[in-house]
Amino acid sequence: MHRNDIRAALELAWTVFLEFDAPDYTAKGIEEFKKFTSIHSVLERFDKGEMLFWGCIEEGKLIGIIATKNVTHICLLFVKKEYHRRGAARKLLQQVIERCMGNLQIREITVNSSPFAVEVYRRLGFVERDQEQTVNGMRFTPMALKLRQC
């Protein structure tokens, strides 16, 4: 995605987050997510190349987004409700995998999955690396997808 697409991506993420993830978070966790996804904060990381975005477009509409921190850590993956279980998340993940496969030193992709998304990530091939944790009111399970053996 390009810089001028980021606002729409964050609006989609916020909308989906409120419906599916926020119910599992404390008020502090929701505030932390809001802070993490603030347009100014994200654009600063995007401009430095620390955060990359991909979008899934269907019939000219943005239906899902994925963002990574330093390519190998998924920090946002959201798909509009009406497109769940239709392959959008898999297509977005495939874009990240293709980007990572060009670098032989990258062995895995990681994510701190919200409780809602753990099963989604399992279906995408991720496995838990640790038990669920709560940091700053945000509940997550560390997970990883192996790309290569050591």
Main attributes of the structure:
Aminopeptidase; 7 strands; alpha+beta; 150 residues; 5 helices; single chain
Protein described:
Pfam families: Acetyltransf_10. GO terms for molecular function: acyltransferase activity, transferring groups other than amino-acyl groups. 36% of the residues lie in helices and 29% in strands. With 150 residues, it is an alpha+beta fold. It has one domain: Aminopeptidase (3-Layer(aba) Sandwich), CATH 3.40.630. Strand 3 (73-79), helix 4 (88-101) and strand 4 form a beta-alpha-beta unit. It is globular and about 40 Å long. The mean pLDDT is 94.
Briefly note the structural class of the backbone. Answer: alpha+beta
CATH topology: Aminopeptidase
CA(first)-CA(last) distance: 31 Å
Low-pLDDT sequence parts:
none
Mean of the pLDDT scores? 94
How many H/I helical runs?
5
Coarse shape: globular
What's the CATH first level? Alpha Beta
CATH architecture: 3-Layer(aba) Sandwich
